[in-house]
Amino acid sequence: HGLIDLLGVDGCGSFVVLEIDRGNEAELLSRLHEYQSWVASQALFLRRLYATGPSNPFRPPRAMALSRRFSERFLQEIEELKQPVTLLHYRILFLQGLPALYLEPARDDEIPAPGPVSDSVESLPLEPERLTPEEWEAFYGFERRRLAVKPDEERVNR
């Protein structure tokens, strides 16, 4: 499918995959599943890259989806999933001429749980480790294979 819309780390140190609806809910569901699986498979590498600190290796990445509107069918499909997905409706508002993103839960029973807020410098994430050229090449090789991009084609498209 391509690239993740947004990959983040929540206040608990867990990865969060956020995808934005592009008008095809079946594709949105497929992307969420694919990207959540990919992040889980690359968690050790991503933790080194982003220095997210210790976490439970059995805890899957969280998934969030943004849309202007979700269909009832999509909401039912999400309910049947094993992994929870946080669904948010979004609107772009203009305040004093500047755009602002407004988010609200798509379901009445769903309020996104905020992670803990840290007040101390000691609890802030560590500096990311520097990866060796071999580690970078292994990662990008994996990504090229996953996205079916040949190295020569990648250089031509840059």
User: Which blocks of ≥5 consecutive residues have pLDDT under 50?
Assistant: 117-121
**Domains, number:** 2
The total strand number stands at 5
Q: What oligomeric state is this?
A: single chain
Instruction: Report the C-alpha radius of gyration, rounded.
Output: 18 Å
Beta-strand residue percentage: 15-25%
Question: What is the topology?
Answer:
Blueprint: E1 6-9, E2 15-20, H1 25-41, H2 43-50, E3 62-67, H3 72-79, E4 85-95, E5 98-105, H4 133-147, H5 151-157
Structure, described:
It is built from five helices and five strands. A hairpin with a 5-residue loop joins strand 1 and strand 2. The chain folds into two domains: 122 residues, no CATH class; 31 residues, no CATH class. It is α/β, with parallel strands linked by helices. The protein has a five-stranded mixed beta sheet with strand order 1-2-3-4-5, covered by helices on one side. The longest helix is centred in the first third of the chain and has 17 residues. 35% of the residues lie in helices and 22% in strands. About 3% of the residues have low confidence.
Structure summarized in a few sentences:
The chain folds into two domains: 6-127, no CATH class; 128-158, no CATH class. It has five helices and five strands, in the order E-E-H-H-E-H-E-E-H-H. It has helices spanning 25-41, 43-50, 72-79, 133-147, 151-157, and strands at 6-9, 15-20, 62-67, 85-95, 98-105.
